Amino acid sequence: MNRKTPEQKIEELENEKTKIEEELKRKKSAIAKAKRRELAKINDQKRKDDTRRKILVGSAVLNKVNNGDWSEEKLKMLMHNFLTRDTDRELFKLSAERN
């Protein structure tokens, strides 16, 4: 018979404890990574939805202008008050300076 001493048993238990702690750390890391990935998907969809809303609102306003329901002057005034970047203002042929 090859019986283990109490010291050997304690060492085996400590080794088992270390292995369990390492596995727990790996699993926690995997869960955190998966959670970040899912949150990124949610944020990406929110960005896409926001962009789509902006496109649709812009399309609706342009449709109003094209149908004569809104004057081009009204659109230019709206954009004049909203846009701040010179490159954006140039798209609507607005002066670079805002009043």
Architecture blueprint of SSEs:
Elements: H1 6-67, H2 72-82, H3 86-91
Give me a quick take on this structure.
With 99 residues, the chain is an all-alpha fold. The protein has helices spanning 6-67, 72-82, 86-91.
The oligomeric status of these chains comes to single chain
Helix amount: over 70%
As a percent range, the share of strand residues is under 5%
Q: Please report the total strand number as a whole number.
A: 0
Measure the end-to-end span: 96 Å
Mean pLDDT: 94
Radius of gyration equals: 32 Å
What does this 3D model show about the protein?
This protein has helices at residues 6-67, 72-82, 86-91. 0% of the residues are buried. The protein is rod-shaped. With 99 residues, the chain is mainly alpha-helical. The chain contains 3 helices and no strands. The longest helix has 62 residues, at 6-67. The termini are far apart. The model has no long low-confidence stretch (mean pLDDT 94).
Descriptors:
99 residues; mainly alpha; 3 helices; rod-shaped
